Amino acid sequence: MPKHRKSLLLIVGMPGSGKSTAAQAAKALGFHVFSFGDIVREEVRRRGLKENEENVEKVANWFHSGREYLLAHRLEKKLRKIHTAKPFYVIEGARSPKQLKEVKEHFNVKILAVVLPQRIRWARQLARGRADIRTTEDARERDARESRYGIEKLLARADWRISSDCNEKEFRARNKRFFKSLLK
């Protein structure tokens, strides 16, 4: 299948690093933003399952057990319907080298890694009050799940890095500067 003329910018990072905040900055500047997590949640609903952490994780594992091509295919189907003058479609939440390989079959791909020291990420996750992250051990286990997918390999292949080791206002400003630079 031929590649799209437009490129994808994959925002990758460990849980709690600030991927969603980076994606919000892109959206505020008019980029079309999508999430692999949205595709997973759509599949949960398609199956008639309750949308909770357990079912989302179950379906995500299903996609990551040799079906990464389905994520890429469903993403491509969504993007074919949308035309943009921006240089990238922004995709939040890629997690594995297999996902990267599949989307590269259809798109030109660049990677933005959002990075933050582990202890700060874990504290952020605990502060959010998510039902599945109540202790640092829960955060450690979530990191371990992400690591099984191979997220570290995506982080290592990043074309750009943004550190979120600052207050939220500064981090939003860093993201805004980064996405504005892509428009030049």
Give me a quick take on this structure:
This protein has 184 residues and is α/β, with parallel strands linked by helices.
Describe this structure in words.
This protein has one domain (7-182): Rossmann fold, CATH 3.40.50. The protein is built from nine helices and five strands. It has helices spanning 19-28, 36-46, 53-63, 68-80, 97-104, 118-128, 136-149, 151-156, 168-182, and strands spanning 7-12, 33-35, 88-92, 108-115, 160-163. The longest helix is centred in the C-terminal third of the chain and has 15 residues, at 168-182.
Please give the number of β-strands. 5
Proportion of residues in β-strands:
5-15%
Structural class: alpha/beta
Domains (count): 1
Radius of gyration: 16 Å
Low-confidence stretches: none
- The overall pLDDT average reads 90
Q: In which order are the strands of the major sheet placed?
A: 2-3-1-4-5
How many DSSP helices?
9
Looking at CATH, which topology would you report? Rossmann fold
- Give the CA-based shape: globular
Oligomer: single chain
The N- to C-terminal Cα distance equals 30 Å
CATH architecture: 3-Layer(aba) Sandwich
